[in-house]
Each structure stands twice: as structure tokens, then as C-alpha cells.
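FAQ

Q: What does a record look like?
A: Structure on top, sequence underneath. For example:
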């Protein structure tokens, strides 16, 4: 068993995921860098190590059962347990002009691809990692969501919520619903499960448009991944506090 806390961050080779890994590494966590692309994964691990983090790479495609099973086995061999799981990997799906996605013209194959990554992938990874999380004294699960997932905000004409995103936004609403169900199922255990909104962060995910840096976007996920015992579970947060569902 590892004597230091261990965190797995999916999609950790770049952007917000990399900064979550870096932030947890700076707090003394051993960081498992989950990523599909071998070259990018190795570069990320080297950068994290150069910054003083104890990092190791984990080949991980969240849409592939075998890949996820092998990732859990690798972490078990490497560390023996898992203290924090940050489900950061996600995709937007094809975007139109101004990032819009018209639900009346939806490509259902593309919708399935988005849900496979953003929802089923999170469930697949979480379920595979649960035996390792149960070995931790203070296990935490963080699902990286978006303010666009808030049905309260989406349905309020007085709230500026951006363009219609008929694939991405519903996938994150689905993810939020899943987050609540995991929190309910795991109530009474030490596992805390929450959703995090990083805000509008400039990354290649959105063509580097946004007022926030990846490090700023990572802060809320890092906070939720390191919650003290008795912290919230089954809630949705950004830097300013709780977001309505």
C-alpha cells in the first residue's frame, strides 16, 4: 500500500486535467496521469515530475472496457489504493458557428459518442476504481461538469448561459444526475462524490476562448478532491459556491 495519497485524473495530459494533476501533485499526492495518447501522456508525466510531482502514466481510454480494467490493475500494482478520482476526460461533440449545437438537426451518432465519453465513460471508470477507493480512509470522486449543465440556469431567460448546445449541455446534465445517484448510493460511506464547474477556461477544447486559465479552472476540482471528512456529497460547485441543478 502506498503511504502517500494517490489520485487518478482522467484526460490529464493537457489543459484543465493537467493542472488538476499538477495541483494535487503540489499537495503531495502521487498522481496517476490517465490519457489515451501515449506521447502526450509521457510528456505530461515528465512535466509534472520536473515540477516536483510524483507522477506516473496510466494508459486510459474511458470508452473502452478493457482499457479501464487494465488502468485499475495498473494503479493497484503501483499504489494499492486510490484516494481521489477526478473524472475530467470529456468531449464537446461537433460544434457549429459560435459553438452552437442545434438539437433539431442533431447527429445521433455524434450524440452517442458524446454520451459514451462524458457519461458512460465516467461511470465505467468510477465503477472500476471503486474497489481501490474503498481502501482509502478518505476517498473522493469529482466529476468535471459545466455550468451549462444547470437546468435551472438553462430554463431561466434572465440568465446568460451562452449558445444552445444540444449535445454537450445535456450530456453534462446527465453527468450531474449520475453524480447525485452515486452520492445517494454511497451515502453512509467515506466516499464523497461531487460535480465541479471549472468555468470558461481557455483551452484547445474551445479554441482557447475564455477568460480563465487552466490553473484557475482546476482549483474547484482540486478543492473537492481534497475535501475534509464530513464535507458535502452529491452537490455541484464552482469557485463561487454551489450551483443549482
Amino acid at each position: 500500500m502506498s503511504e502517500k495519497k494517490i489520485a487518478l485524473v482522467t484526460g490529464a495530459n493537457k489543459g484543465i486535467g493537467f493542472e488538476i494533476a499538477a495541483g494535487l501533485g503540489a499537495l503531495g499526492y502521487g498522481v496517476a496521469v490517465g490519457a489515451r495518447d501515449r506521447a502526450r501522456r509521457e510528456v505530461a508525466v515528465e512535466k509534472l515530475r520536473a515540477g516536483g510531482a510524483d507522477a506516473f502514466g496510466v494508459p486510459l481510454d474511458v470508452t473502452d472496457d478493457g482499457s479501464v480494467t487494465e488502468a485499475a490493475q495498473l494503479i493497484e500494482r503501483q499504489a494499492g489504493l486510490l484516494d481521489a478520482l477526478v473524472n475530467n476526460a470529456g468531449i464537446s461533440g461537433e460544434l457549429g458557428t459560435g459553438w452552437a449545437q442545434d438539437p433539431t438537426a442533431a447527429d445521433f451518432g455524434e450524440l452517442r459518442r458524446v454520451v459514451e465519453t462524458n457519461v458512460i465513460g465516467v461511470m465505467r471508470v468510477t465503477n472500476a476504481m471503486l474497489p481501490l477507493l474503498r481502501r482509502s480512509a478518505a476517498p473522493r470522486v469529482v466529476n468535471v461538469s459545466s455550468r451549462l449543465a444547470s437546468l435551472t440556469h438553462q430554463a431561466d431567460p434572465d440568465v446568460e448561459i451562452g449558445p444552445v448546445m444540444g449535445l454537450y449541455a445535456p450530456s453534462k446534465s446527465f453527468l450531474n444526475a449520475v453524480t447525485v445517484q452515486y452520492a445517494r448510493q454511497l451515502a453512509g460511506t467515506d466516499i464523497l462524490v461531487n460535480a465541479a464547474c471549472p468555468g470558461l477556461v481557455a483551452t484547445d477544447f474551445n479554441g482557447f476562448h475564455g477568460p480563465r486559465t487552466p490553473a484557475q479552472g482546476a482549483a474547484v476540482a482540486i478543492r473537492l478532491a481534497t475535501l475534509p471528512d464530513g464535507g458535502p456529497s452529491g452537490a455541484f460547485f464552482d469557485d463561487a459556491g454551489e450551483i443549482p441543478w
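Q: Is there anything notable about this one?
A: The longest strand covers residues 30-35.
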